[in-house]
Design brief:
Blueprint: H1 3-21, E1 26-29, H2 34-47, E2 52-56, H3 65-78, E3 81-84, H4 88-96, H5 106-127, E4 131-133, H6 138-143, H7 164-174, H8 178-182, H9 195-199, H10 203-214, H11 219-226, H12 230-242
Parallel strand pairs: 1-2, 1-4, 2-3
Length: about 260
C-alpha cells in the first residue's frame, strides 16, 4: 500500500463524512494508544484543531499512568480541546445497581466499560453537534477484537481499512510520538492486559495471516508461511467467523412474504 496516498484518502474521508452529516467537527476517544493518536492527527488535518474534541476516559487504578500522559501529550501537541473523565465511579454505580452483577468478571465488566465510554463520547458529540470518529483498525474489525456497541459504536471508522501494521507505518508518517507507537498495544480494560497476549500472536503474524487468507491462499500454505500450526490458524479463523455478527446490522425478521 502507498501509505501517503492512503493517508490523504482518509483525511478526505473524514472531511467528507462530516460535511455529509452537516457538522463541522468530531469527537475522538484518545486512549493513549497508537490507533486513537493516529485518528486524532488525521482528524485535525481534515477538520482543523478547533473542530476536534479529544476525550480521555481512564479508570483509576486500572488505566496505566503512561496512557494518561500520552493521551494528554497528543491533545496538547495538536492544540485541540481536551477533557479527561475518570469512568471508575460510573462503573461502580452500574455494578452496585444491577442485581446479580459480578465485579470479578473481567470480560463482562470490560465490555461494560467500553460501552460506558461510548455513551460518554456520544453525549459530548450530541452536545456539540459532532460525529464520533472511531479508532478501530482492520485487524481488530476482522477478528471482532472490540466491543459491540462499545468501541465499535461510532459514526465513522477512518482507519478501519488499515491493518495494525499499516497503522504503525502511517502513525510514523503523521508524526505520532515514537513512545506511543513503540509501546505494547492494550485496551487497558483490566490490569496487565495486552492485545497480543490475548490474541496469542504478534500483530505482524496476524496481519500476514489475514492478508494471505483474504488474497485466497490455502490454509495449509498460509500456516507454513506464517510459522503457525494448523490448530492455531483454525482458532484465528474461527474468531473471524464467530464475530461476523459484529460487522453486520442486527438481523430483522423478514415479513415480506406474509404482507398483503
Amino acid at each position: 500500500m502507498d501509505i501517503l496516498q492512503a493517508k490523504e484518502k482518509i483525511v478526505d474521508f473524514i472531511r467528507e463524512k462530516c460535511e455529509d452529516a452537516g457538522v463541522t467537527g468530531c469527537v475522538v476517544g484518545i486512549s493513549g494508544g497508537v490507533d486513537s493518536a493516529l485518528v486524532t492527527h488525521l482528524a485535525v488535518e481534515a477538520l482543523g484543531a478547533e473542530n476536534v474534541l479529544g476525550l480521555h476516559l481512564p479508570e483509576l487504578n486500572v488505566t496505566p499512568p503512561e496512557d494518561v500522559l500520552d493521551a494528554t501529550a497528543v491533545a496538547n501537541g495538536l492544540g485541540i480541546e481536551f477533557r479527561t473523565i475518570d469512568i471508575g465511579g460510573i462503573v461502580q454505580t452500574y455494578l452496585a445497581n444491577m442485581p446479580g452483577s459480578d465485579p470479578a468478571n473481567k470480560y463482562v465488566n470490560g465490555n461494560l466499560k467500553a460501552r460506558i465510554r461510548m455513551s460518554i463520547l456520544y453525549y459530548y458529540a450530541n452536545l456539540g453537534s459532532r460525529l464520533v470518529a472511531g479508532t478501530g483498525n482492520k485487524t481488530e474489525i476482522l477478528l471482532g477484537y472490540y466491543t459491540k456497541y462499545g468501541d465499535g459504536g461510532v459514526d465513522l471508522e477512518p482507519i478501519g481499512d488499515l491493518y495494525k501494521t499499516e497503522v504503525f507505518q502511517m502513525a510514523k508518517m503523521a508524526g505520532v510520538p515514537a513512545g506511543i507507537i513503540d509501546k505494547s498495544p492494550s485496551a487497558a480494560l483490566w490490569e496487565g492486559q495486552t492485545d497480543e497476549n490475548e490474541l496469542g500472536h504478534s500483530y505482524a503474524t496476524i496481519d500476514s495471516i489475514l492478508m494471505k487468507m483474504l488474497a485466497g491462499e490455502g490454509a495449509g500454505e498460509v500456516a507454513l508461511e506464517c510459522g503457525v500450526s494448523d490448530g492455531e490458524l483454525d482458532k484465528l479463523l474461527q474468531r473471524v467467523d464467530s464475530n461476523m455478527h459484529k460487522r453486520m446490522l442486527p438481523p430483522v425478521a423478514d415479513l415480506a412474504y406474509i404482507r398483503t
